[in-house]
Amino acid sequence: MKRIWSDNEKFRCWLREAQQKNIHITKTATEVEERIKNRKKELDSSNKELNTVKQKLGQERKKLSSFGIVRKMTNQKVKLSMENEVISAIKSFDFQLKLALKITETPNSQSWN
After folding, report:
1. What is the DSSP string of the chain?
2. Contact of 85 with 78, CB cutoff 8 Å
3. Please, which domain of life does this record's source organism belong to (predicted)?
4. Terminal Cα-to-Cα distance of the chain (whole angstroms)
5. Considering its fold, how many domains does the chain have in total?
6. Which residues lie closer than 8 Å to 13 by C-beta, 6 or more apart?
7. Is residue 68 part of a domain?
């Protein structure tokens, strides 16, 4: 036999179900809020780490660019010293050539002319 529910009993049953659903919804909402807070904390720490890495990368780039400048200056110094060596070798060769010409110019060689 079916039981006939009074309006009062129906309302109480509905209220009980609604409260249980509300409790479940509240628990779920609280859990979601906690997860969101935890995720925000993780993201904040990740952003801090990322910023630290970016700063270190910037410092390394500065070091490398200054190293590149030093390397260019060193290369220029090497080129300059090589040019100086070539110039001094040419001067030395020129001096030796003049000396050789003076030695070959003897009084006898002038008499042949």
Report:
1. -PPPPPHHHHHHHHHHHHHHHHHHHHHHHHHHHHHHHHHHHHHHHHHHHHHHHHHHHHHHHHHHHHHHHHHHHHHHHHHHHHHHHHHHHHHHHHHHHHHHHHHH--HHHHHT-
2. no
3. Eukaryota
4. 155
5. 1
6. 5
7. yes
**Over the stretch 56-112, which tens digit does the pLDDT of each residue have?**
888 887 877 777 666 777 777 778 888 888 888 888 888 888 777 777 765 555 544
Residue 47 counted as domain residue: yes
Give me the domain span that covers residue 26: 7-103
pTM over 0.70: no
Q: Which amino acid is at 33?
A: E
Q: Would you say the C-alpha torsion 24, 25, 30, 34 has a positive or negative sign?
A: positive
What Å distances lie between residue 65 and 56, 58, 68, 72, 111, CA to CA?
14, 10, 5, 10, 69
